[in-house]
Amino acid sequence: MKIAIDGPAGSGKSTIAKQIAKNLNITYIDTGAMYRAITLYCLNNKISENNLEMIENALKNIDLEFINNVIFINKVDVSSEIRSPLVTNNVSNYAKIVIIREFLQKKQKMIAESQSIIMDGRDIGTVVLKDADIKIFLTASVEERARRRLKDLSNEGYDVDKNLLTEEIRRRDEIDSTRTHSPLKKAKDAIEIDTSNMTIEEVISTIEDIIRRG
Ligand code: CDP
């Protein structure tokens, strides 16, 4: 079974995908975490998004591992660092680089080959799991997405201004949906769910109903 969940920043993809994976006892892969990890590596090593040669070299030196939802770069657990506002503000600029996308998409396809999986991201239904059994496209108003993100960040100890956060989400959606290589887009055969006025539980049960109906 292959399930693809796509949607813009803060639409609830990862919370929902994680819970469905648990309920169905299948693997969950957060592809955004991979783009964040590459971004973190580049920022830490002062590799600019314009320096393709250095990026190409970096990709050869990055050992990216996912073990039980914990992400490691060269054996170091970076799961919390990849959520920092610095990474969030830069990730879309690295995620539009073709060699980074091809590197990660290949990795994601390989992970999905051998097991039942639920993957979330921006290009899962359109590219990575083009033949997924179920494709879901989650949306929500930008205000609601900013409100959710603010709550998450404050739980993690970050104090962020709501207006700045709303702007950041808008900007990231814009970059993600206008890039040339595998942009954020609803797959033709995806089911769109607007979660603006839904609880997490309601979204999960809606998707599980869709899965049951096949
Ligand atoms: O959780 P949030 O919605 O903030 O984003 P994320 O899923 O962690 O993804 C972070 C960024 O990675 C996105 O804004 C995209 O720029 C990029 N991304 C992508 O391009 N393709 C994916 N399949 C997943 C993420």
Explain what the structure shows:
The protein has 214 residues and is α/β, with parallel strands linked by helices. It has helices spanning 13-24, 31-44, 52-61, 85-95, 98-113, 124-128, 142-155, 162-178, 200-213, and strands spanning 2-6, 27-30, 64-67, 70-73, 76-77, 117-121, 134-139, 191-194. The protein has one domain (2-200): P-loop containing nucleotide triphosphate hydrolases (Rossmann fold, 3-Layer(aba) Sandwich). The protein has a five-stranded parallel β-sheet with strand order 2-6-1-7-8. Strand 3 and strand 4 form a beta hairpin. The longest helix has 17 residues, at 162-178. 38% of the residues are buried. The mean pLDDT is 96. The structure holds cytidine-5'-diphosphate. Cytidine-5'-diphosphate is lined by residues 9-10, 14, 31-32, 35-36, 91-92, 95, 121-123, 172, 176. Residues 9-10, 14, 31-32, 35-36, 91-92, 95, 121-123, 172, 176 line the site of cytidine-5'-diphosphate (CDP).
